[in-house]
Amino acid sequence: MLQTTRVNWFLLAAPLLVLGLTRVGVEISIRLSPPIVSWIPAFIGYYLAIGLMLYIAKRYFEIPITQNLSLSFKPYPRFNVLFWTIVIPALLPLTGFITQLKFVPLEFLFYIFIFACINPFFEEFFWRGLLSHLPGNNTFRLCYSAGLFSFSHYFFWSYWFKYPIIIIPTLVATFIMGMLWMRFIQKEKNIIYPIVSHIVVDILNLSVAVYCGFIRPEHF
């Protein structure tokens, strides 16, 4: 019982610890790095914080992060679940992608691709994989994980996001995405589909190019 209590407290605290450690990394990065590249060490700090929580979860609390989650595309999920929880969140940024693509420097497409191939794995294994073990019922897990996942985007990007026209839709969209991806995992016990959906989201969001300020309010 004592071990279970400790595990539950760790799971509840883990996202808060990630946010705190990430914010420290952001503050250090923006003070020591040029603004145009300060997101790079900040992101490294974010991933190190996530990696630390995943290591502690497995090493000291023996939480089976992905033991019960499939990393295969088979068996195929039901169509309605796939559509509403995987396809829909992947397409949420599509309008922004179509309207803003012309403002993105061509050379940044390489960085977008690299970012989109790394970020979803860290975030899905933590925000959905680990937090699917949160105490409470499925509704609590959905709201707690999605709420903090959404807030992490403000907590991380507040230095680079200067305009409500960018940050508010981002927070709303990431909350919806977080809920839908967690719902898929709860129903299908599969994490590979949310990872793929997340990759598409990061590409359509123009990821690094958007966050570095290449897209400004006058573009809207």
Helix content, binned percent? over 70%
Low-confidence stretches: none
Report the C-alpha radius of gyration, rounded: 17 Å
Whole-number mean pLDDT: 89
Question: What percentage of amino acids are in beta strands?
Answer: under 5%
Question: Helical region count?
Answer: 9
Order of helices and strands: HHHHHHHHH
Query: Which structural category do the helix and sheet elements fall into?
Result: mainly alpha
Largest sheet: none
Instruction: Report the count of strand segments.
Output: 0
N- to C-terminal separation?
Answer: 55 Å
Global geometry: globular
Describe the structure.
- With 220 residues, this protein is mostly helical.
Which tags fit this structure?
9 helices, globular, mainly alpha, 0% strand, 220 residues
